[in-house]
Design a protein that fits this description.
The structure holds two protein chains of two kinds. Chain A is an alpha+beta fold. Chain A has one domain: Nuclear Transport Factor 2, Chain: A, CATH 3.10.450.50. In chain A, 19% of the residues lie in helices and 38% in strands. In chain A, strands 2-1-6-5-4-3 form a six-stranded mixed sheet. Chain A is globular, with a radius of gyration of 16 Å. Chain A starts with 15 loop residues before the first helix and ends in a 15-residue tail after the last strand. By secondary structure, chain B is of the alpha+beta class. Chain B folds into two domains: 104 residues, Rieske [2Fe-2S] iron-sulphur domain (Rieske Iron-sulfur Protein, 3-layer Sandwich), CATH 2.102.10.10; 239 residues, Naphthalene 1,2-dioxygenase Alpha Subunit, Chain A, domain 1. Chain B is 27% helix and 26% strand. The two termini of chain B are 35 Å apart. Classes of the chains: A alpha+beta, B alpha+beta. Chains A and B meet through α3 of A and β14, α6, β20, α9 and α10 of B. The structure holds FE2/S2 (inorganic) cluster (FES) and fe (ii) ion. The site of FE2/S2 (inorganic) cluster has 9 residues of chain B, from loops. Chain A: Keywords: Oxidoreductase. Chain A: InterPro entries: NTF2-like_dom_sf, Rng_hydr_dOase-bsu. Chain A: One of its GO terms (biological process) is 3-phenylpropionate catabolic process. Chain A: It comes from Marinovum algicola. Chain A: GO terms for molecular function: oxidoreductase activity.
Chain lengths: 171, 428
């Protein structure tokens, strides 16, 4: 199913399979390094957050040091950067596999849908492979023609990044 | 058998202005064992910041120099550092990363310890000899030395070590320039960046005070700043690198990025400008113009030997790291700022931090990649044997993109490991 078929009908609630298809599409774009297209999935005021693992999962980036706390501008710059050869940490690009499961719709109201799912993302860089895992929280905006991501928070279940080293890919 | 085993670990030729470091220092398990004994067991090591323990009973647990430590504040408000091992059979007593506790109970057999580590009670107490509880061996051991400088707490496993102040020596001037940015004290901001590199810890020492690599390693970060409306001033990267003695080193320089400590960029708007102006005016009143300008416009990458980095750059970070093996290091990094800082200023500080620093930033991941590539390159260290740290050696006043501050580290490292004094009395 393509993203076009996922258009939100006025006031009609979105279903879990529709949300799943959207999240699978997002994962596929990341795995294929089609990052500019991935970026198009976001609203203009979107945020992308990865809190550290020694504070509450819903902590605010306004008064805590995160791993990543991108507004839409910085997220765009992140994508631009990762598409350059001079983003040394990701050159040559890692191979990644974003796995998603346990998708649940938590709420939907006024065109905004809160979704949670579990994730495991595998990464191979040179001779090393490792993985990230935890929970994703998406706020989806379904008020327009296309589903858009208004907020994405990645809650890691590891203690820090001792096995992963860094988050140079997008989770 | 290593055919090069008679080579020095550090080779200094002052006449030819050459400074070479053996690559075996980054791979050899014997060197690693000696470092644990002669550096991590004898040097002052950063433990934590006073602001992390606010109330009596607050504690954090931390691995420092390979030891498991409880850092806590007791009922009287005194800071303490305890070895996190039960005197009974050795289990880690405190298993939480942070919290507040009136007492610590080891879950294995149920011994209970006070905030000072003293044994308070144990089940089946009457089966023990009289006076058992009064024997110091029945208590959790205290770390032999715990001292602080301006809110930064350090520990040392060597009871004979010089005082922290003496150890810090000339580095204190630079710590003051950081701490004097706050009138109500500095605080560590919530959230720790905990990450790792498949690289020897000394590579991160060098990298953290390396003014030479920015243009090529961090091209994408500089692109980013350039692309941002008002993200940069026209100030150039310019300054000096210094050997501060005792293995400490610093680079101090001007740079085009915004500094929440006093260098405004137009991105921060009029309100941001007013705030920065007020900050600089306050500092001028407190410290005089010269020092206030130095606080505001000079960046500092400071190394406190062996493994504490305080980078007062586009943001302020405290970073410490420990080797797990010759080719693996763990990093803990924090952001810090003045307690009295406004919400808006705090935002700029954190935003600046995340753009550059940390495992998800636009710069640090490329540093990690560089260090890991070096470590991979050291597979050839029997044949391709030497690292070069000579840059700027012939200069009277080495610049921030020279390597004097790294030579400071390596001289002290060599002195502690081998007893070599080959570097003494030499200029930068
Ligand atoms: S090991 Fe702690 S009570 Fe026995
Ligand atoms: Fe760097």
């Amino acid at each position: 199913m393509s993203v076009e078929t996922l258009k939100a009908v006025d006031a009609a609630p979105i279903t879990r399979p529709e949300v799943e298809d959207f999240l699978y599409l997002e994962a596929a774009l990341l795995d294929e390094w089609r990052l500019p297209e991935w970026l198009d999935l976001f609203t203009d005021d979107a945020i992308y957050d990865i809190p550290p693992t020694d504070i509450a999962a819903d902590a605010s980036s306004a008064n805590n040091l995160f791993y990543i706390a991108d507004d839409r501008y910085r997220l765009g710059e992140r994508v631009k950067r990762l598409m350059k050869r001079t983003a040394h940490a990701e050159y040559p690009h890692s191979k990644t596999r974003h796995q998603i499961s346990n998708v649940r719709i938590l709420s939907q109201e006024a065109g905004l849908v809160e979704v949670t799912c579990n994730f495991t993302t595998y990464r191979t860089k040179d001779d090393f492979s490792n993985f990230f895992f935890g929970r994703l929280l998406h706020t989806l905006d379904i008020s327009g023609d296309d589903i858009k991501i208004k907020a994405k928070r990645v809650v890691l279940d590891t203690n820090g990044l001792r096995n992963q080293g860094r988050i140079s890919i997008i989770l | 058998m290593n055919p090069n085993s008679n080579d020095p670990l550090v080779m200094i030729d002052n006449e030819r202005h050459l400074f070479k470091v053996s690559r075996s220092n980054f791979t050899d398990p014997e060197v690693f064992a000696k470092e644990r004994e002669r550096i991590f067991s004898t040097c002052w090591l950063y433990l934590g910041h006073e602001s992390e323990l606010k109330k009596p009973g607050d504690f954090v647990t931390r691995v420092v120099g390979g030891r498991s430590i409880v850092f806590n504040k007791d009922r009287q408000g005194e800071m303490r550092a305890l070895f996190n091992s039960c005197p009974h059979r050795g289990a880690q007593v405190c298993r939480e990363r942070k919290g507040n506790a009136k007492a610590f109970q080891c879950f294995y057999h149920g011994w209970v310890f006070g905030q000072d580590g003293a044994l308070r009670s144990q089940p089946g107490e009457d089966s023990y000899a009289q006076g058992f509880k009064d024997d110091p061996d029945s208590n959790m051991r205290q770390v032999p030395r715990l001292e602080s400088y301006r809110g930064l707490y350090f520990i040392c496993y060597d009871p004979q070590a010089v005082t922290l102040e003496e150890y810090l020596g000339n580095a204190k001037e630079y710590l003051d320039l950081v701490c004097d940015q706050a009138v109500d004290g500095m605080e560590v901001i919530g959230g720790t960046q905990e990450y790792a590199m498949n690289a020897n810890w000394k590579l991160l020492v060098e990298n953290s005070i390396d003014g030479y690599h920015a243009v090529s390693t961090h091209a994408t970060y500089l692109d980013y700043l350039k692309s941002m409306e008002g993200g940069l001033t026209d100030v150039g990267l310019k300054g000096v690198g210094k050997d501060l003695g005792n293995g400490h080193g610093v680079i101090e320089y001007t740079a085009p990025w915004g500094r929440p400590a006093g260098q405004w960029i137009s991105l921060w708007g009029e309100e941001g400008k007013n705030e920065i102006d007020a900050l600089n005016a306050r500092n001028e009143k407190l410290y005089g113009k010269e020092k206030a300008d130095r606080i505001a416009y000079k960046n500092r990458n400071l190394l406190i030997f062996p493994n504490l980095i305080i980078n007062d750059i586009m943001s302020l970070t405290i970073r410490t790291f420990f080797p797990q093996s010759p080719s693996l290091l763990h990093v803990n990094a924090w952001a810090a700022g003045p307690r009295e800082e406004s919400e808006a200023a705090r935002q700029f500080r954190l935003s600046n931090f995340l753009e550059f620093l940390g495992p998800g930033g636009f710069a640090t991941p490329d540093d990690v990649e560089a260090l890991e590539q070096c470590q991979l390159g050291y597979r050839n260290s029997q044949e391709a044997r030497w690292n070069d740290i000579s840059k700027g050696m012939k200069l009277d006043e080495p610049s921030m993109d020279d390597e004097a501050q790294m030579r400071a580290f390596w001289r002290e490292w060599d002195r502690r490991l081998t007893g070599s004094e080959q570097a003494q009395g030499v200029g930068a």
